[in-house]
Design brief:
CATH superfamily of the largest domain in chain A: MetI-like
CATH architecture of the largest domain in chain A: Orthogonal Bundle
CATH class of the largest domain in chain A: Mainly Alpha
Distance between the termini of chain A: 10 Å
Largest interface: A-B, 82 and 84 residues
Helix content of chain A: over 70%
Largest sheet of chain B: 6 strands, mixed
CATH architecture of the largest domain in chain B: 3-Layer(aba) Sandwich
CATH topology of the largest domain in chain A: MetI-like fold
CATH superfamily of the largest domain in chain B: P-loop containing nucleotide triphosphate hydrolases
Largest sheet of chain A: none
Shape of chain A: globular
Number of helices of chain B: 23
Helix content of chain B: 55-70%
Structural class of chain A: mainly alpha
Number of domains of chain B: 2
Structural class of chain B: alpha/beta
Oligomer: heterodimer
């Protein structure tokens, strides 16, 4: 198990290195233009050169990257070119906001899709047919359109929830809850549809296994076999889907945050990219990769605990 | 979004099944409707912009945020431009974006997938690793970050998204190729020295194209949504009308116009829904699922229910298990019932071993499973009666059957490895039914399980008890399954080819164990086998089955001495030749 975890951590670090290198290379390659953009339209050539020199943009890409990397490993991702704030603390503040929405969404997706998927797989019949129909609709409605419909209905027309804004949990748990309901619902629809389908087919696949029949032949009830054996075996594919959904929802949050005027990672990324605030953009990519690596690591470990064979063969 | 999660069932049917796939899809009303809708959308995207009566870029001050009216049928946007014209104009880039991204993903993913799946080894490992890396990154964030480089360039966004989606194509293609690679016709093509490119193109790609087309349809819908989201947050090309940017505009003036946000969203949803439904219809057509099968099955079941009560009951003999005129059938899509067991009758007395013999497909396993009421989905007892100690099992519900299974009738399966839950320790799986059915404590159940392992000649019971199924051998697993079958003191054991999957040397030991347990506990055993050597070894009487019917029944000595039915003679001639006698086999293992 320990070697398994170490291997995964190693792969994660390699991924982090790869992503940061590619991102850095692609984005900093246009460095000179950026200096011009920063100085503004009326800036003369000397001012642009001075700005480029100040930011180190006049040096070869490799040198710039080395400087960035040696700082990055100590946790220093540089400063924003616009606000001069250090990047990492800003990122953490914004990440907390985004995660507080995405994690709630993940819990909702997990509970809903696992329940629906299991019921559809076990009962089949009308439950299953309804899942098939509604999941097509759920997948077809883009989350930003769902968010607009929700805002129009529940915020503007009915006034049940605030249309925009985010209240930190620490300030007021009640207001926080009210402020995340609509974003979470908008974010959840498609992932629930997709995950419920996957859970359904995973459970159905396990139900057809020989050992399920054998356990039932020993006098274990259908229910007992389902809870004690089937779900355990169906968990790995389910968890894998959930981890992909989590990543998908972090991406989805970028868009949802714009609609609800929530200052999370997504808003930060969009603002920074529109202003070419490159240290922030690179920082966002790096931090997102860290989150992805951590989530996958947790999923892998849980899978390894559930299925002893997975840990050996991985 | 959920780009990687809409995975497909890799339906590699036979080529025969595929020929009619498109026609079957058209026969599915939902699929046909979706295909027509999709066709209309593509036509609009292709020719709509040429026919527009209002210039989508023309702004009229009197139409700013206007409601639907005669001039602007769907109203005007925040700049006073015609929403309908912009919808039509925007369809082109939206549809094109979806198709181009999916195509880029397909070209990259399929070509690497073909190479990796066909060649394997280090290339496979390397590409697989890179694909995993790309796959885990959230596409939206990558697109946003890359905007710094790309700027508002729709084509570059399509290409980058295509690269981001390629891994899902790679994975699918690779796994399909690996499934097909081992097929005989591929070997045949290799032997006849065809160049690799030709084998891959003609013999592999042709077979796996169905699931790939399906995946292409799904990825198109995914990339339409992702690109619309990208345009919605203002990172699209401001000069080109798209459904995403229209939604952005509608969102900005959401307090001024409450219908403008409906249309572009609806356009996206309808397009994506049409794609998904076409995908579903395609999947069903490839899997050869008849959309009407459900109703047919319902009708058949209802008809069977009415029919079943009319079967005349035969007088009960004193047998512990009595099977009368058993018919087991599977409901077909066309409402017909495919009978796999057709009018089988036999008896099993206490302490007796009866061999149920026949070649594969003769219905012997189906007969055995119907006694336990554990037939696979779709199968059921259509006619006839199964009585356990005089009690008709036909009328019992699932709970009553659960109470009987294991305690009165137990089951030894054929394939040892697949019949143990891979995620649970042997001891847990063995002790759980004892604890539940005999209502004993956890500790007592564990002790009983250990002693059972000892009874099936396992040298180190504690070690096996603490092992997972993948840590023990097949012969060991079969002993565990036999121990499991006798764990709740049943009267009847149904053993379905208990030695077929094992090595010859292990077979003899397993038969010895079964014989000993049968003798000690005076068990009635129904031994399903195709092997007359096993029959000679263990059985008192034999029931020979052929094509779902009983060919011959009789005492084992009589059957061996003078088989009446020509089929029995054929079976014996085929199976006895060259088999070592029991004595020889025991000597080998001793």
């Amino acid at each position: 198990m320990l070697t398994f975890v170490l291997k995964r951590v190693g792969a994660g670090i390699l991924l982090l290195f790869g992503v940061s290198t590619v991102t850095f290379a692609l984005i900093y390659a246009g460095g000179a233009d950026i200096a011009a953009q920063l100085v503004g339209d009326d800036g003369d050539r000397a001012a642009v050169a001075a700005k480029a020199a100040e930011l180190g943009l006049d040096q070869p890409l490799v040198v710039q990257y080395w400087r960035w990397l040696t700082h990055a490993v100590t946790g220093d991702l540089g400063e924003s070119w616009y606000t001069s704030q250090p990047v990492l603390p800003t990122l953490f503040d914004r990440l907390a906001v985004t995660l507080s929405i995405v994690v709630v969404a993940l819990v909702v997706v997990t509970l809903a899709s696992v329940t629906i998927g299991i019921v559809a797989a076990v009962r089949r019949g009308w439950v299953d047919r309804m899942l098939q129909t509604t999941s097509v609709i759920g997948l077809a409605i883009p989350n930003f359109w769902a968010a607009l419909i929700l805002v129009m209905t529940f915020a503007i027309a009915l006034g049940w929830f605030p249309a925009t804004g985010y209240v930190p949990f620490g300030e007021s748990p009640n207001l926080w809850a009210a402020s995340v309901v609509l974003p979470v619902v908008a974010l959840c629809l498609a992932p629930i549809s997709a995950t419920a389908q996957q859970v359904r087919s995973a459970v159905m696949g396990v139900l057809e296994q020989d050992y399920v029949r054998t356990l039932r032949a020993r006098g274990l009830s259908r229910r007992r076999v389902l809870w004690g054996h089937v779900l355990r075996n169906a968990a790995p594919p389910g968890l894998t889907v959930l981890s992909l959904q989590f990543i998908g929802m972090v991406g989805g949050a970028v868009i949802i945050e714009r609609i609800f005027a929530i200052n999370g990672m997504g808003s930060l990324a969009v603002d920074a990219t529109l202003k070419s605030d490159i240290p922030v953009v690179v920082g966002v990519m790096v931090l997102m990769t860290v989150v992805v690596v951590l989530v996958n690591l947790v999923i892998d470990i849980v899978n390894g605990l559930i299925n002893p064979k997975a840990a050996v063969s991985a | 979004m959920s780009e990687q999660t809409i995975t497909t069932s890799p339906a590699i049917g036979q080529s025969v099944a595929r020929q009619g796939a498109f026609r079957r899809m058209l026969a599915n009303p939902m699929g046909l409707t979706a295909l027509v809708v999709l066709g209309v959308i593509i036509l609009v995207a292709a020719f709509g912009p040429l026919l527009l009566w209002n210039d989508p870029g023309h702004a009229r001050l009197d139409q700013v945020n206007s409601s639907p009216n005669a001039g602007y049928l769907l109203g005007g946007d925040s700049a006073g431009r015609d929403i309908l014209s912009r919808l039509v104009a925007g369809s082109r880039i939206t549809v094109l974006g979806g198709v181009v991204s999916a195509a880029v993903a397909a070209v990259i993913g399929v070509s690497f997938g073909l190479a990796a799946g066909y060649k394997g080894r280090s290339f496979d490992l390397t590409v697989g690793w890179i694909s995993d890396l790309v796959m885990v990154l959230p596409s939206t964030i990558v697109l946003v970050a890359m905007f710094t480089v790309t700027g508002p360039n729709a084509v570059l966004v399509m290409l980058i998204l295509g690269v981001m989606l390629a891994p899902s194509f790679f994975r699918l293609t690779r796994s399909l190729v690996v499934q097909v690679r081992g097929n005989l016709y591929v070997d045949a093509a290799k032997v006849s020295a065809l160049p690799d490119t030709r084998i891959v193109g003609r013999h592999i790609l042709a077979v796996i194209r169905g699931p790939l087309i399906l995946h292409f349809v799904l990825m198109t819908s995914v990339s339409i949504i992702l690109q619309a989201g990208f345009q919605f947050i203002g990172l699209g090309d401001p000069n080109v009308p798209t459904w995403g940017s229209m939604l952005q505009d509608a969102f900005r003036s959401i307090y001024l116009s409450d219908t403008a946000f409906v249309w572009p969203g609806l356009a996206i949803a309808v397009t994506v829904m049409a794609l998904l439904l076409v995908g579903n219809a395609l999947r069903d057509a490839l899997d050869d699922v008849d959309p009407k099968a459900h109703q047919a099955r319902k009708r058949a079941a209802a008809a069977a229910k009415a029919q079943r009560s009319t079967v005349p009951a035969r007088p009960l003999s004193g047998a512990i298990l009595q099977v009368d005129d058993l018919v087991v059938g599977y409901d077909q899509a066309d409402g017909e019932i495919k009978k796999v067991v057709d009018g089988v009758s036999f008896e099993l007395n206490a302490g007796e071993v009866v061999g149920l013999v026949g070649e594969s497909g003769s219905g012997k396993t189906q007969t055995a499973l119907s006694i336990l009421k554990l037939l696979p989905t779709g199968g059921r007892v259509v006619e006839g009666r199964i009585c356990l100690e005089g009690q008709d099992l036909g009328g019992l519900d699932e709970d009553a059957m659960t109470a009987i299974r294991g305690v009165r009738v137990a089951y030894v399966p054929q394939e040892p490895m697949s019949n143990l839950d891979p995620t649970a320790k042997i001891g847990t799986q063995l002790a759980e039914p004892i604890r539940v059915r005999l209502k004993v404590s956890r500790k007592e159940a564990a002790e009983r399980a250990l002693s059972l392992l000892e009874q099936v000649n396992i040298k180190d019971p504690q070690r096996v008890f603490d092992s997972y199924p993948h840590e023990i051998s097949g012969g060991m697993a079969q002993r565990v399954l036999i121990a499991g079958a006798v764990s709740c003191d049943p009267d009847v054991i149904i053993a379905d080819e208990p030695t077929t999957a094992l090595d010859v040397t292990v077979q003899a030991e397993i038969l010895d164990i079964l014989r000993n347990l049968q003798g000690q506990r005076n068990l009635a055993v129904l031994l399903v086998t195709h092997n007359f050597g096993v029959v000679a070894d263990l059985c008192d009487r034999v029931v020979v089955m052929q094509k779902g019917k009983v060919a011959e029944t009789g005492d084992v000595r009589r059957i061996f001495a003078e088989p009446e039915h020509p089929y029995t003679r054929t079976l014996m001639a085929a199976m006895l030749d060259g088999r070592p006698s029991r004595r020889e086999r025991t000597e080998v293992t001793a």
